[in-house]
Design brief:
This protein folds into 2 domains: about 140 residues, Glutaredoxin (3-Layer(aba) Sandwich), CATH 3.40.30; about 160 residues, Up-down Bundle (Glutathione S-transferase Yfyf (Class Pi), Chain A, domain 2), CATH 1.20.1050.10. Helix content is about 40%, strand content about 5%. The protein has 12 helices and 5 strands.
Length: about 375
C-alpha cells in the first residue's frame, strides 16, 4: 500500500494545529502497542466493519481523513471515534491525558471503554490512528498512508467508488505536483512556520509568502473549478482544511490581516464550493478548533495579544456565508480553462514560429 505523496510532502513542516511528537509517544496496553504496529500490505484489504479510525476534530490531518471517509461514503464501513478533551486540561490534542473523553460510535477494541484511560496505559496517544479489529493491531498513525488506503482500497464497499481523489491520469498528476509546489507548499508551510515562530518579526514575515500563495491560487482558480481541473482531488482537501480556518481564526493573528472573502473572490468561491460538497460541512467544527490547546498555543495567544474579540456567533455567521451560492458554474469555469489552454498554445507558437519559419500573427 502506497502513501499519498502530496499529503506527506505538504506537511513536511508540521501544521500549526498539529504538534505531536510521535517519537515521544509510549503505547500502551498489550493490544495497543506501537512497537507491535504493522504496515499496510496485501494482508490489509478494505473490508466493512474491520477498521476503526481515531480522530480529533481540531487536528487538520484528522480533518482531511474525515473528509475523505465522508466523500467516499465510508460512514457505515469504517468506524470513526472522535477523541475529545476536557476543557480544564492543559495538553494538546495529540498528547491527551488519561481522563480525556472519547465519543464511542461502535468501538470494538474494548467494549467497556468510555474514556481514554480504558484504552491507553499511559497518558499519551497519537491521532490520527487506524486500528484493525481483525488482527487487533494498530495499522498506521501516518495520515498520508491512511488517506491513500481509504481512497483506493474500499471501492468495492463504499457508496461512491467513482470518486478518486488521487487519480493516476498523467495530466492530473502533473497538475497536482505543480499546485503542490506553487500553492500548497507556500501557504501551508508558511502557516506552519508562523505557528511555531519565536518572534513577532518571524511571525509577520510569513504573511507575504501566504499572500503569494493565495495570489497564485486565485490565478489558477480563475480558469479551473478545482485546483487540478474539473474534478476534486486530495490537493483540494488538503488546502481546504488550511484555508477553512483562515478567515475566522488564523487571519486575526496577523497585524496586516488579509481576508479571503474580500480579497480573493475565486479562492472564496472555491472554498464555498468544497464546503458545499456532499458531507464536507458535517466535518467542519470551528468551535472544536478554537477551543483546542494546539490552536491556542500557536495562534490563539497572538490573537489575545492583539486584543481581538470575536463577535458573538462568529462561527455560525462564517458557516452561513460558506453555504451561500458561490456562482462557480462548472461549464463556465471549464470554458475559461479551455481558453487559457488555447492562449498558451498560441503564445508558444508565436514565440517559436511555425515550421515554415514565418511567425504566426495573433488575431
Amino acid at each position: 500500500m502506497s502513501k499519498s505523496p502530496f499529503l506527506s510532502d505538504i506537511f513536511a513542516y508540521k501544521s500549526p494545529l498539529q504538534k505531536s511528537n510521535l517519537a515521544d509517544v509510549s503505547f500502551l496496553p498489550p493490544q495497543l502497542d506501537l512497537s507491535d504496529s504493522v504496515s499496510l500490505s496485501a494482508n490489509f484489504k478494505g473490508e466493512p466493519n474491520r477498521y476503526q479510525l481515531f480522530l480529533n476534530e481540531a487536528n487538520p490531518l484528522c480533518h482531511i481523513i474525515n473528509i475523505v471517509a465522508t466523500i467516499k461514503g465510508l460512514d457505515d464501513i469504517v468506524y470513526i471515534n472522535f477523541v475529545r478533551h476536557d476543557e480544564c486540561c492543559k495538553h494538546t490534542e495529540e498528547k491527551g491525558c488519561a481522563e480525556c473523553e472519547i465519543q464511542i460510535t461502535c468501538i470494538k477494541i474494548n467494549k467497556f471503554a468510555r474514556t481514554m484511560r480504558h484504552l491507553f496505559k499511559n497518558d499519551h496517544f497519537p491521532v490520527p490512528l487506524l486500528y484493525d479489529n481483525k488482527t487487533e493491531k494498530i495499522v498506521s498513525t501516518e495520515s498520508d498512508v491512511i488517506v491513500e488506503f481509504l481512497n483506493a482500497d474500499f471501492n468495492e464497499h463504499c457508496s461512491y467508488p467513482e470518486i478518486d481523489l488521487n487519480p493516476l491520469d498523467e495530466e492530473i498528476q502533473e497538475k497536482m505536483t505543480k499546485v503542490q509546489k506553487k500553492v500548497l507548499a507556500s501557504i501551508n508551510q508558511s502557516i506552519g512556520r508562523a505557528g511555531r515562530a519565536k518572534s513577532l518579526e518571524e511571525f509577520e514575515a510569513m504573511a507575504s509568502e501566504i499572500k503569494e500563495g493565495l495570489a497564485e491560487m486565485e490565478k489558477i482558480l480563475s480558469r479551473r473549478r478545482y485546483l487540478c481541473g474539473d474534478i476534486i482531488t486530495e490537493i483540494d482537501l488538503i488546502e481546504f482544511v488550511s484555508l477553512f480556518r483562515w478567515d475566522p481564526l488564523i487571519s486575526w493573528a496577523f497585524t496586516d490581516r488579509v481576508c479571503i472573502r474580500d480579497s480573493y473572490p475565486e479562492v472564496w468561491g472555491w472554498l464555498q464550493d468544497i464546503y458545499q460538497t456532499r458531507g464536507v460541512a458535517e466535518t467542519c467544527d470551528l468551535t472544536a478548533i478554537y477551543k483546542s490547546q494546539s490552536f491556542y498555543q500557536s495562534f490563539g495567544v497572538r490573537i489575545i495579544e492583539l486584543g481581538v474579540e470575536l463577535q458573538e456567533d462568529w462561527d455560525m455567521y462564517y458557516l452561513e456565508e460558506l453555504a451561500e451560492e458561490h456562482g462557480r458554474d462548472p461549464d463556465e469555469v471549464r470554458e475559461r480553462e479551455e481558453e487559457a489552454k488555447q492562449e498558451a498554445e498560441e503564445e508558444k507558437e508565436h514565440a517559436h514560429g511555425p515550421d515554415c519559419g514565418h511567425k504566426r500573427q495573433r488575431v
